[in-house]
Design a protein that fits this description.
Distance between the termini: 22 Å
CATH superfamily of the largest domain: Periplasmic binding protein-like II
Largest sheet: 5 strands, mixed
Structural class: alpha/beta
CATH architecture of the largest domain: 3-Layer(aba) Sandwich
Number of helices: 14
Strand order of the largest sheet: 2-1-3-10-4
Order of helices and strands: HHEHEHEHEEEHEHEHEEHHHHHH
Number of strands: 10
Strand content: 15-25%
Oligomer: single chain
Number of domains: 2
Length: 344
């Protein structure tokens, strides 16, 4: 899988390829070529935070870069978020990617976990309603579903209800346990509307034309963080070079997908089986519009604090937690030095 064809700007592409070939040595004596020498032949197991969907194409591309450009034996398994988290905490997977809020909750629960890189950092969820429902206000008295009453679903749901003139209590709220279960229920008479990922929305719209309307794009309502890469701190302390390689690969993948839509679509159609015509392209276009992938990494301590404060205010976290206790941006900072800054 050839993932590194171009970077958005030729100057950045030249810098990356030069570094891979043995470019200028940084102040700390680490180049991409030196990093490759440190990690080549090592293994890493990756647990994605959801079952195969288009949101995880970025993660698949990161695993591909680790293999193709750094010689790392990277294997992955897409799992539901709670199962993925359990796999990392127990040590059965080296690293995982789930929402920042979930990691904060794990840390508060006693797990010694640490975020070290960002993946897709903008939420792609939408609230989808069945025609003739067109607005959030139209949900009064209707049956609305999402994964749960706590955590990220609550944050996104409440943001979409805000300013609509109604709240979730004005609708009939059903908890489905996962966004996948919500999408499935939305394809039946069980729900009138639900909170689903963008690719699930595109699939339902393709399968049942003129049946569903997007009532809310959550990225327009809240900046709450989405998926990040994390591991047990003991693993990071023992494998700093692999953690750095993941951070570098994440940035390279983000830069690649903006420049190579066809490449993203190829990976998407291989990873997610039985996609309906147009679903992958429609989803990619939305991802690009909302800026799903951050080309320079998205870990930011003030942004993390804002997200933690929001989760606490909504009782999605029982109490506040210092971001420095479970987030480090040192690997992201080093990756930026190696690659140089880029634009989308």
């Amino acid at each position: 899988m050839k993932l590194l064809k171009t970077i958005v700007h030729a100057t950045v592409a030249a810098a990356v390829m030069s570094a891979l070939a043995g470019g200028p040595v940084l102040a700390d004596d680490m180049t991409l070529d030196a990093l490759k020498a440190k990690v080549q032949g090592k293994s890493i197991t990756m647990a994605f935070g959801s079952t195969p969907n288009l949101l995880e194409v970025q993660s698949v591309m990161i695993a591909g870069i680790l293999k193709d450009k750094f010689g790392v034996n990277a294997t992955y398994q897409p799992l539901p978020a709670d199962v993925s988290a359990a796999a990392v905490v127990s040590g059965s997977a080296d690293i995982g990617e789930v929402s920042l809020g979930r990691i904060a909750g794990l840390k508060q629960g006693g797990a010694d976990v640490q975020i070290f890189a960002s993946n897709d950092y903008v939420n792609d969820f939408v609230i989808l309603g069945k025609a003739p429902i067109k607005t959030m206000a139209d949900l009064k008295g209707k049956v609305y579903g999402d994964s749960s009453s706590a955590g990220i679903s609550q944050v996104l749901r409440d943001a979409c209800y805000s300013g609509s003139g109604i709240n979730v209590d004005d609708a009939q709220h059903v908890e489905l346990g996962s966004s996948g279960a919500t999408a499935q229920a939305l394809s039946t008479p069980k729900l009138d509307a639900g909170l689903v990922h963008a690719d699930a929305a595109a699939t339902l719209q393709a399968k049942f034309p003129n049946t569903y309307n997007v009532l809310c794009y959550v990225y327009e309502k809240t900046s709450v963080a989405n998926d990040v890469w994390y591991a047990n701190k003991s693993w990071i302390d023992a494998n700093p070079d692999l953690a750095l390689a993941v951070s570098v690969s994440s940035m390279l993948a983000a830069r690649q997908v903006y420049a190579d839509k066809a490449g993203w679509l190829k990976v998407a159609n291989s990873f997610v089986k039985d996609l309906l015509p147009g679903v992958a392209e429609q989803t990619y276009d939305l991802y690009k519009t909302i800026g799903l992938w951050d080309v320079n990494g998205a870990l930011d301590m003030p942004d993390c604090k804002k997200n933690v404060d929001l989760l606490v205010s909504l009782d999605a976290l029982p109490e506040s937690i210092e971001c420095s206790s479970f987030v480090t941006d040192s690997f992201q900072s080093q990756a930026r030095k190696m690659l140089g800054m880029a634009t989308k």
